[in-house]
Design goal:
Shape: globular
CATH superfamily of one domain: Amidase signature (AS) domain
Radius of gyration: 22 Å
Helix content: 25-40%
Strand content: 5-15%
CATH topology of one domain: Amidase signature (AS) enzymes
CATH architecture of one domain: Alpha-Beta Complex
Strand order of the largest sheet: 1-3-2-4-6-5-10-11-9-7-8
Order of helices and strands: HHEHEHEHEHEEHHEHEHHHHEHHHEEH
CATH class of one domain: Alpha Beta
């Protein structure tokens, strides 16, 4: 991984002499590591990369730099539409598909002068927490050693982006986060993973998994790098119906910057940090608990006040999330039928079912079938509607503990509360790839759980996704048993994105 010093130079607009070499170093790393890690599924041709790099170097030399990302290597998750490379979402269904337009956030990066290295691997249509369910084969953890027998997962569904950033194939990468798909791989790979507030970054051109949950996410080597990318892509887009409207966006941004300005240094005196009691769950490893406690001590040492808080509906977050996400996925992915979109079975006698069975992988099929069932008569009333009500209660739980007012609600903020919440990003270090594949292929499993066990990995990341609030995973420690990274997650109120990154940067000082 790049050192903190090099990363800061790479995004420094004054570093003209080094800007041109950024993409070259990234390409060298791709050629060195990608065959082993399988992080990139498509890489931009050298001629295009060279042209983009030369133009950036020329602008910097002439003092006309487009900004801090000019000439910086960026990866793009394979579910963002791009005109220069295929967009397949890790699925046979979209094999070879090239979009006629760029996703809005991709366009923003191009306009900022970023050098787009290529498309990164992902779980099929974002359905997974391991980057093991993809037509390109799994992405493995960059912490694995060459020739290692038991490989670890990179996390999903943005595992390709996380592995690419962690192994210096790019300074930062776009990911998507529906229930933790940026924060979980960031924790497993030892980098920063940031999910902004829902509606802050345009979803136009992001291939949909679950409409009400999907967020553009950012993976970066440092919190500073994530912040630069966020500032570049966080803009109103009229083509995104879920985008935060300009007037409210301006009000939220002003309140966000004012709060962030209260802590201009690593002195956190006056900051109130909440520790949710419900996040002490059974699957959590001793290493994760120890690192969480170390994070609490770290913030307390810098002057923060530690406050126990309760989020009583957290226990229902996972079932509510998978009910809603799978229902939306079943609806959204119905379009890939081989007639309107996507792969079609070759035989003349092939049916609609044949096409979808051949096109979708096992995990995608499982989630589509479950989602379709949830939306059927009877189950809709007994499962989907209660899950929506539970989601509302989870949102209210967060509103009841944050001192900041949620601008999307008319209810006032509590007089006593906290500014941020601190918890682990994952229950432990990256699991073994073989264990994930075994659990996913076994409907019952040795303990009667099977595939459900793989869903529990999202236990800490799902609640902020249901509430639409910002959350960031920061590398903070390593497992004492195997040395693999474990991240800590900071969560804040809706719209306080830059404030959250400011506080996360003080946590990252330790890493």
């Amino acid at each position: 991984m790049l050192s903190r010093v090099f990363t800061q130079r790479a995004i420094n607009p004054q570093a003209s002499a080094r800007a041109f070499t950024t993409w070259q170093q990234a390409l060298d790393a791709i050629e060195k590591h990608n065959d082993r890690l399988n992080a990139f599924v498509a890489v931009q041709d050298k001629e295009s990369l060279n042209q983009s790099g030369e133009q950036a170097a020329k602008r910097r030399a002439e003092g006309t730099s487009l900004g801090p990302l000019d000439g910086v290597a960026i990866g793009i998750k394979d579910n963002f539409c791009t005109t220069s490379l295929p967009t397949t979402c890790g699925s046979k269904v979209l094999e070879g598909f090239v979009s006629p337009y760029d996703a809005t956030v991709v366009r923003h990066l191009k306009e900022a002068g970023a050098v787009l290295m290529g498309k990164t691997n992902m779980d099929e249509f974002g359905m997974g927490a391991a980057n093991a369910f993809t037509c390109y084969g799994p992405t493995t953890n960059p912490m694995d050693q060459p020739g290692q027998d038991e490989l670890r997962v990179a996390g999903g569904s943005s595992g390709g982006s996380a592995a690419a950033v962690a192994s210096n194939m790019c300074m930062a990468a776009l990911g998507s986060d529906t229930g933790g798909s940026v924060r979980l791989p960031a924790s497993y790979c030892g980098i920063v993973g940031y999910k902004p507030s829902y509606g802050q970054c345009s979803r136009h051109g992001l291939v949909t998994y679950a409409t009400s949950l999907d967020c553009v996410g950012i993976l970066a080597q440092t919190v500073q790098g994530a912040g630069v990318v966020y500032d570049t892509i966080s803009k109103y887009d009229e083509q995104d119906p879920s985008a935060l409207l300009p007037e409210l966006r301006a009000q939220v941004d002003e309140a966000d910057r004012k709060l962030a300005a209260q802590w201009p240094s690593d002195d956190l005196t006056g900051l109130r940090v909440g520790i949710p009691s419900e996040y002490f769950v059974d699957p959590m490893s001793k290493d994760a608990i120890d690192i969480w406690r170390a994070g609490i001590r770290h913030m307390k040492k810098r002057g923060a006040t530690i406050v126990p808080v309760s989020l009583p509906h957290t226990r229902y977050a996972l079932p509510a999330y998978f009910t809603l996400a799978l229902a939306e996925a079943g609806s959204n992915l119905a379009r890939y039928d081989g007639v309107r979109y996507g792969y079609r079975a070759e035989e003349d006698t092939a049916s609609y079912a044949d096409t979808r069975t051949e096109g979708f992988g096992t995990e995608a099929q499982r989630r589509i079938l479950l989602g379709t069932h949830i939306l059927t008569a009877g189950t809709y009333e007994t499962a989907f509607l209660p899950a929506q009500k539970t989601r509302r209660q989870i949102q209210l739980d967060f509103n009841n503990v944050f001192l900041q007012h949620n601008p999307l609600y008319s209810t006032p903020a509590p007089t006593e509360g906290v500014h941020v919440l601190l918890c682990p990003s994952a229950t432990g270090p990256a699991p073994k790839l073989s264990d994930i594949l075994k659990s996913a292929s076994d409907d019952q499993g040795e303990k009667g759980h099977g595939v459900v066990d793989t869903y529990v990995n999202d236990v800490f990341t799902v609640p902020p996704s249901l509430a639409g609030i910002p959350a960031v995973s920061v590398p903070f420690g390593k497992s004492s048993e195997d040395g693999y990274p474990i991240g800590l997650q900071l969560i804040s109120q809706y719209g306080y994105d830059r404030f959250l990154l400011r506080i996360a940067d003080t946590l990252a000082v330790h890493s």
